[in-house]
């Protein structure tokens, strides 16, 4: 029974990723695309966790951690780029 529920959850995560991919392609603005990209990564993390439970292994936990860190950093960088037009400001004293 638990395998059926986990498989259903995995299919729903794949469906959510497909919907977010559509939002990335057809998004009306760049912030919508950034949020959709973040949503894809969160659903990928959840899908990998479900696969890890289905396979009864802990091998994918490091992958989940790395994906979470990269998603956080990329979301912050893209939002700073949208806000300011530059990610790292360099102030020159001349």
Automatic annotation (TrEMBL):
Claim: Protein transport is one of the keywords in the record: no
Alphabetical list of Pfam families matching this protein: MrpF_PhaF (PF04066)
Entries under InterPro entries matching the protein: MrpF/PhaF-like
Keywords recorded for this protein, A-Z: Antiport, Cell membrane, Ion transport, Membrane, Transmembrane, Transmembrane helix, Transport
Keyword RNA-binding: no
Compartments it resides in: Cell membrane
Membrane spanning residue stretches: 6-25, 34-54, 60-82
Top-rank taxon: Bacteria
Bilayer topology: Multi-pass membrane protein
Family, similarity comment: Belongs to the CPA3 antiporters (TC 2.A.63) subunit F family.
Protein name per its UniProtKB record: Na(+)/H(+) antiporter subunit F1
Species of origin: Siminovitchia sediminis
Lineage of producing organism: Bacteria, Bacillati, Bacillota, Bacilli, Bacillales
